[in-house]
Amino acid sequence: MTNVLVTHSARDDLDALWDQDEDSAAEIETALEEIANDPKLADRLSERKFRNTQTPSYDVDVFQKLWQKGLNLYRLKFWDWNGSLLPYRVLYAHHPQANCFYVLAVVPRNFDYDIDHPIVQRVLADYKYLGIPTY
Q1: Which of 15, 62, 70, 83 has the fewest CB atoms within 10 Å, i.e. the most exposed one?
Q2: CATH number reported for the structural domain that contains residue 48 in this entry
Q3: How many domains does the chain contain in total?
């Protein structure tokens, strides 16, 4: 069975988001719970360009700059129940040997994926700490 786990860092991001944008926080948490509880959805989290048009509505893609460096890093973007794109992304990693996806961060949609950004540095530190392989 595939596991979807939210790290402490991502939990802190979500907690902060609840204070800023309750609706987006609720949409993201609900979507992550639904994905974690549906093996068919969880198994597709490593499928590039996968788009789930049912509820929860989201799509998957790689974190391109770090994917090219051999890291199993992805991003999720979500649509709310009205069909509007949420202004946040979820960054996560796949540990294939453990059959686990680790949610590492929740970032604003305008996040520029700069690999020197402090959030990316935190994601990289968590990735290494969790022992997720690099290829």
Answers
A1: 83
A2: 3.30.2310.20
A3: 1
Helix (H) / strand (E) containing 94: strand 85-95
In the chain, count of helices (H) and strands (E)? 5, 6
Is pTM, for the whole model, over 0.85?
A: yes
Gap between the terminal Cα atoms of the chain: 23
Q: What is the pLDDT of residues 3-42, one digit of tens each?
A: 999 999 999 999 999 999 999 999 999 999 999 999 999 9
Cα angle, residue 65 at apex, residues 63 and 68 outer, rounded to 5°: 95
> Which of 94-120 are b and which e, b meaning 16 or more Cβ less than 10 Å from the residue's Cβ?
bbeeeebbbbbbbbeeebebeeeeebb
